[in-house]
């Protein structure tokens, strides 16, 4: 019984059969006619497979058995008549583009162009891998070997990013000067507090990253990005790494407690617990781990804001006053924390896409392989959140309104790359484009926010020229002089009365 597809294609098959019969008749006539010989073609004679190279027959696959039998007969014939070694069947021998039909040549070129444009170049190795390689090249038991190995446990680039994300909100807090409190009558920020903040935050980050490596050396060994870490290569023992993490964590929390304030110290300890105790184990359970990791990224900005708020606190300096002030002065800290929280998603979604198969093989559940479509949607969604967050910083009085204008191009750039990442699901170079856009986006936004800090340039103008553009300095001085004159007059009057 013939299939419906063969019945539908009966007219075309009949036409091909007639063409084949007429062609063979013409060849026999040319070969038997005197003075006429069939011209020899320098190219390979066209077979039935040439006429069958179209999408309809390719999808139906109903004639594959016929072609395979024909190729096998041709192979057996060439083996018996030729001393050369047998060739592979045509279905297994790759053909060059020039041997294909014209329309097949165009399709092959398009496919090659698509593959070349969608190929993802490997991302640069992280600092831990580079430091581990440097440590392994040093003599055993040398100081440089030990120092590089322990430094690689801290994930230096990530730690530097965490410290910078705490320093920027500290500098953005709305106080007029970065001077010692004893040098000015107005609220100010202390460089000593900033030193304790940066040191304690760096130590807490180092402890969290070391505990992260201690928890998953088996999964790190299965991925190219992490297989060069010091614990995987055995440069440091697990006992030594655990002791290093405990010392860094204790020193960091203590420095934040006594050098900054208890609220910041509690936030630093919470970051260690959430990152090492919740986020790291959750990676093997659910893709929701990315949201927990984003919370970890949003805590350092709150630490910097709470550190600055403690310097300007007028009440008891409790966590409610520093993080939930009734006058709304703590809104800026939450907005900056939201900025870092949202940034985690486009950055990590693009980063994880390139190694999604390795995450899958290691048993780590990431959206890049569990749900690629949602992976792109999440990256695009949180890229759009930057627009209202930047406007919110202006409305909260953290920055001036020029920041909303200058940050828009950076936000549009990342949103565009996130849209491409969602549209092509990471292909056509969109994942790499979003990754590098996120790398440059965060420092760009932070630098612009610092440049557009509220009233910063007016204070700089007064510091240089002694007055501002609106003449507010003169009015203040006149009011102060009038007050001094009134006080002097009252004093003189009292003196005159006492003499009488």
From TrEMBL:
PROSITE patterns: UBIA
Subcellular locations according to the entry: Mitochondrion membrane
Record keywords: Heme biosynthesis, Membrane, Mitochondrion, Transferase, Transit peptide, Transmembrane, Transmembrane helix
Native source organism of the sequence: Trichoderma gamsii
Family under the similarity heading: Belongs to the ubiA prenyltransferase family.
Any matching Pfam family: UbiA
Keyword Transmembrane attributed: yes
Function: Converts protoheme IX and farnesyl diphosphate to heme O.
UniProt record, GO biological process: heme A biosynthetic process
InterPro entries: Protohaem_IX_farnesylTrfase, Protohaem_IX_farnesylTrfase_mt, UbiA_prenyltransferase, UbiA_prenylTrfase_CS, UbiA_sf
Transmembrane residue ranges: 147-172, 192-215, 236-258, 264-282, 291-313, 333-355, 384-404, 433-452
Disordered, as annotated region: 68-135
Enzyme class: transferase
Enzyme Commission number: 2.5.1.-
Molecular functions (GO terms): protoheme IX farnesyltransferase activity
Membrane topology (UniProt): Multi-pass membrane protein
Keyword Transferase tagged: yes
Comp. bias regions, Low complexity: 110-135
PANTHER family: PROTOHEME IX FARNESYLTRANSFERASE, MITOCHONDRIAL
Identification of the protein by name: Protoheme IX farnesyltransferase, mitochondrial
A Gene Ontology cellular-component term: mitochondrial membrane
Lineage, uppermost ranks: Eukaryota, Fungi, Dikarya, Ascomycota, Pezizomycotina
């Amino acid at each position: 019984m013939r299939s419906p597809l063969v019945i539908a294609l009966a007219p075309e098959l009949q036409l091909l059969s007639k063409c084949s019969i007429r062609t063979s008749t013409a060849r026999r006539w040319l070969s038997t006619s005197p003075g006429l010989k069939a011209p020899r073609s320098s190219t390979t004679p066209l077979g039935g497979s040439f006429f069958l190279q179209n999408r309809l027959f390719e999808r139906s696959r109903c004639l594959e058995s016929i072609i395979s039998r024909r190729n096998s007969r041709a192979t057996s014939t060439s083996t018996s008549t030729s001393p050369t070694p047998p060739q592979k069947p045509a279905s297994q021998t790759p053909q060059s583009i020039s041997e294909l039909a014209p329309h097949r040549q165009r399709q092959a070129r398009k496919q090659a162009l698509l593959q070349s444009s969608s190929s993802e170049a490997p991302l640069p190795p992280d600092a831990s891998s580079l430091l581990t390689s440097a440590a392994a090249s040093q003599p055993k038991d040398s100081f440089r070997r030990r120092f590089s190995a322990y430094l690689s446990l801290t994930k230096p680039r990530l730690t530097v990013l965490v410290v910078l994300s705490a320093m920027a909100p500290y500098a953005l807090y709305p106080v007029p000067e970065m001077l010692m409190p004893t040098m000015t009558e107005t609220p100010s920020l202390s460089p000593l507090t900033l030193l304790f903040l940066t040191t304690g935050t760096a130590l807490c980050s180092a402890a969290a990253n070391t505990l992260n490596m201690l928890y998953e050396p088996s999964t790190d060994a299965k991925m190219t990005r992490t297989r060069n870490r010091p614990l995987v290569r055995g440069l440091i023992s697990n006992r030594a790494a655990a002791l290093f993490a405990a010392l860094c964590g204790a020193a960091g929390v203590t420095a934040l407690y006594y050098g900054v304030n208890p609220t910041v110290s509690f936030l630093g300890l919470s970051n260690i617990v959430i990152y090492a105790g919740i986020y790291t184990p959750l990676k093997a359970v659910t893709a929701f781990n990315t949201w927990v990791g984003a919370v970890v990224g949003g805590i350092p900005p709150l630490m910097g804001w709470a550190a600055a708020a403690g310097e300007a606190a007028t009440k008891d300096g409790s966590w409610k006053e520093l993080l939930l002030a009734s006058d709304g002065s703590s809104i800026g800290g939450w907005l900056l924390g939201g900025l870092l929280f949202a940034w985690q998603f486009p950055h990590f979604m693009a980063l994880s896409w390139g190694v999604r198969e390795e995450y899958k093989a290691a048993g780590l559940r990431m959206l890049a392989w569990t749900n690629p479509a949602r992976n792109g949607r999440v990256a695009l969604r949180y890229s759009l959140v930057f627009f209202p967050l930047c406007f919110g910083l202006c409305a909260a009085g953290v920055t001036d309104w020029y920041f909303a204008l200058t940050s828009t191009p950076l936000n549009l750039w990342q949103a565009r790359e996130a849209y491409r990442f969602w549209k092509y699901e990471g292909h056509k170079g969109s994942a790499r484009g979003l990754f590098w856009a996120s790398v440059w986006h965060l420092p760009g936004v932070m630098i612009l926010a610092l440049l557009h800090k509220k009233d910063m340039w007016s204070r700089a103008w007064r510091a240089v020229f002694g007055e501002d553009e609106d003449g507010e300095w003169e009015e203040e001085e006149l009011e102060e002089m009038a007050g001094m004159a009134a006080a002097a007059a009252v004093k003189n009057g009292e003196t005159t009365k006492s003499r009488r």
